[in-house]
Specification:
Layout lengths: L1 H27 L25 H7 L2 H7 L19 E5 L5 E4 L3 E2 L7 E2 L8 E6 L6 E6 L5 E6 L9 E4 L4 E5 L2
This protein binds zinc ion (ZN).
The site of zinc ion has 8 residues, from loops.
């Protein structure tokens, strides 16, 4: 009986050691995905949060906007919405008018989707791991209405090295006055 307890205790110590080692290894390993952004975010709490029912969203958005923003759809590449250069201005969320991206941070990624190297500010968007379509990607969501915007990848230009790949359909361009 005592032997069993000792064996269990030894086993528990080993398990603890392995967990500690795993933790260490996780810290040392190159953080390919998590270096991009904090993936373990919850929907941010903010005083101007926009919460609507599905029916309200359907009434406010076009079917295409609804499909992308509320149902995590993806527009076809090169569909042209907000893809071309438009001069200085800001891109807003079609769901809630939150300022998301600046025209100055837009670049031609050649992918067929509007691409930005960073959001207007870090609190404008939040992130979630997306494991659909047999891939692991990082989903970008609007922090005010939790609408799906696109995905972020770490093959963007310096200095951020990030590519915010956004569905132009859910962006509203407001030129600088
Ligand atoms: Zn929004």
């Amino acid at each position: 009986m005592n032997g069993t307890i000792i064996a269990l205790a030894a086993c528990a110590a080993t398990v603890a050691g392995v967990i500690a080692l795993a933790g260490q290894a996780a810290q040392d390993a190159p953080k390919k995905e998590t270096s991009v952004v904090n993936l373990d975010m919850q929907s941010p709490q903010r005083p101007d949060k926009v919460v609507r029912t599905d029916e309200e969203w359907k009434a406010r958005l076009t079917p295409e906007q609804y499909k992308i923003l509320r149902n995590k759809g993806t527009e076809p590449p090169f569909c042209g919405v907000n893809l071309e250069k438009k001069g200085p201005g800001t891109y807003l969320c079609v769901g809630c008018d939150l300022e998301l991206f600046r025209a100055g941070n837009k670049f031609d990624s050649g992918t067929g989707w509007p691409s930005f190297c960073e959001p207007v500010d870090k609190d404008a968007v939040w992130y979630k791991t997306d494991r659909t379509h047999f891939m692991t990607r990082t989903e970008i969501l609007c922090s005010r209405c939790d609408g799906h915007l696109g995905h972020v990848f770490d093959d963007g230009p310096p200095p951020s090295g990030l590519r915010y790949c956004i569905n132009g359909t859910v962006l509203k361009f407001v030129p600088e006055k």
